[in-house]
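Backbones bend. To wit:
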Amino acid sequence: MESLPVEQKKTLSFDILTYRAPFLIEKLLKDAIIESSEEGEQLFTEVKRWMLLVRLDTSKVWQMYSLRIDEVWHQFVLFTDEYIKFCDFYFGSYFSHNPANAPGNNEENELSTGSFGAFKQLYEKTFSIELPDIWFDEKSININRRVLNDYVQKFFLVEKEGKVNMINDGGELVLSINLFARDAIAFIAATKAFYVRELPGNLSDKEKILLISSLVEFNILRVTS
């Protein structure tokens, strides 16, 4: 993919960020993917900014660095006709939702994959603002947040020297935490999907949020609604 001419970049940057999709926000609310219309608008704005950056800088393969933002993009794609019209109008062609690291993508482009740090720099240079916290899924955790465990029953727990260690099926240490969170860790290891508030044990809400935030940050858990 060739880089866009400078003047076209300016037009694209202005136009795409003014696009609104109330039908998408309505679906996100109905499916409990978001907690408020404001949150949905914020997430959708970041979808548009990410798509814009991918087209403005084609020197690298840029990944989608937030699962929450990616889910909003995915939901947008499900409105097939609207999404195709959106892509044709703003990009001149269909913008595939295939992951950046899908088989064949790197071979076709022969480009290196941009790091999150490089993406942050590009974002802040392009939009003249700091990368919003909404890009950090672990910062979105609250007591009512629902999270998913794709590694359910693939970890086992070992108590040692006053700690409970979470070990993966390759024998590697994933997490070590005080025994006060033993019941919560056992629950997480055995549960596919749950709300933060459902963690057992005598943990405060703050402790539950901190524990889940850490596991999301290290890609052990992922955020949903």
